[in-house]
From TrEMBL:
<dbReference type="InterPro" id="IPR025669">
    <property type="entry name" value="AAA_dom"/>
</dbReference>
<dbReference type="InterPro" id="IPR050678">
    <property type="entry name" value="DNA_Partitioning_ATPase"/>
</dbReference>
<protein>
    <recommendedName>
        <fullName>AAA domain-containing protein</fullName>
    </recommendedName>
</protein>
<feature type="domain" description="AAA">
    <location>
        <begin position="34"/>
        <end position="231"/>
    </location>
</feature>
<dbReference type="InterPro" id="IPR027417">
    <property type="entry name" value="P-loop_NTPase"/>
</dbReference>
<dbReference type="Pfam" id="PF13614">
    <property type="entry name" value="AAA_31"/>
</dbReference>
């Protein structure tokens, strides 16, 4: 486990870790490594930005040891955290890449689980990463086909389904494992969600995000039911990672991405529609995810404000928003980002500790 001291590579002077956060970190470490998916089957909700910057807050500022797994074949998180030079050099030779593909490929050719994790350090963000790989999409069919076998208790199907459970099992030297995921309810994401302890839903304030809440709740019910049946029928449980029937990821909460204010032709602001949708989110969450929610917790982890050009500049510089060192308007925006991620991070840790089993 990590020491709890802020990461040595940080580029800015952060405030001392509060007593509240210190207590939460100590309580979390008693529980052991936790795994958290960030998922929404709707795209464009700021998921990757949230994952990278929340992980940076936890690692750079608060000293937690974080592993981020880029499980999205689009590799947006990998492009965010690697410098342009590192990115080009890394992907120059596809046969030499140590990535998420390296985790699942040995299993697909009958060699069993990968012996080690292909971990890469990202000093600018303070965390380690298993980089993404577009070839992961080629394994979607494998996971889909073996899921049918898993539901009937087949050893091969269950072992394939639990490939990400094995990854988490190998990451016990981390405090938290984050998964950045693509926007789909496909076979890859099913395996990730069924492996994780918890999930967070990043949202934009629109009707499709509301629909996505229901989709996630419905899908998880079906997947967990089918997996439980498969485990009960398992041909050889000793060949599987330690997973029990009835275990399911708990819902840690949601984060909303605020839209940039727009003006009608007459100059009035378009806010009524957003406000109306925003007010329906708590009830939709209660209706569709309450059975997975943590008791006596507030699932609304926070709102991501529109921070003008700070997010795209952060991506261009391959550095967290809280460490963008440019002057001018960026000074104020960076200060806002630090407050924002400190608040979201604190709420996240509260729910994580409360939901740890």
């Amino acid at each position: 486990m990590s020491t709890g001291k802020p990461h040595k590579s940080r580029k800015a002077n952060f405030p001392a870790v509060s007593g509240e956060v210190t207590k939460l970190i100590n309580a979390l470490r008693v529980k052991g490594t936790r795994s958290v998916c960030f998922f929404n089957n709707k795209g464009g909700v700021g998921k990757t930005t949230l994952v990278a910057n929340l992980a940076a807050q936890l690692s750079l500022v608060w000293g937690l040891k974080i592993l981020v797994v880029d499980a999205d074949p689009q590799c947006n998180l990998t492009q965010y955290v690697l410098s342009d030079e590192d990115f080009i050099e890394t992907y120059r030779d596809s046969d030499a890449i140590k990535s998420i593909f390296s985790v699942i490929h040995p299993l697909s050719i009958g060699k069993g689980y990968s012996a080690t994790l292909p971990v890469r350090k990202i000093p600018s963000f303070g965390f380690d990463v298993v980089i993404g790989d577009p070839r992961l999409a080629l394994k979607e069919d494998l996971l889909a086909q073996d899921w049918r076998d898993a539901k009937s208790g087949g050893t091969r199907g269950l072992r394939t389904t639990f490939v990400f459970s094995d990854l988490i099992k190998k990451a016990t030297n981390y405090d938290i494992v984050f998964f950045d995921m693509g926007p789909s309810l496909g076979a890859i994401n099913r395996s990730v969600l069924l492996a994780a302890n918890h999930f967070v839903v990043p949202m934009s304030i629109d009707i499709f995000s509301i629909w996505a809440i229901k989709n996630i709740g419905d899908a998880l019910k079906i997947w967990q039911r089918d997996l439980d049946n498969g485990l009960k029928l398992a041909e050889d449980p000793s060949e599987l990672p330690k997973v029990t029937t009835g275990s399911r990821p708990s819902f840690l909460g949601y984060v909303t991405q605020q839209h940039k204010e727009r003006l009608e032709k007459d100059g009035t602001r378009i806010v009524e529609a957003y406000n109306a949708i925003s007010k329906t989110i708590p009830e939709q969450v209660k209706q569709n995810l309450n059975h997975l929610s943590i008791k006596n917790s507030d699932p609304h982890l926070g709102d991501i404000k529109h921070l003008a050009s700070l997010a795209p500049k952060s991506q261009t510089l391959h550095t967290p928003m809280i460490t963008v060192t440019l002057k001018g308007s960026y000074t104020g925006l960076r200060k806002q980002a630090r407050t924002l991620y400190q608040n979201i991070g604190t709420h996240f840790l509260k729910n994580l500790v409360a939901g740890a089993r």
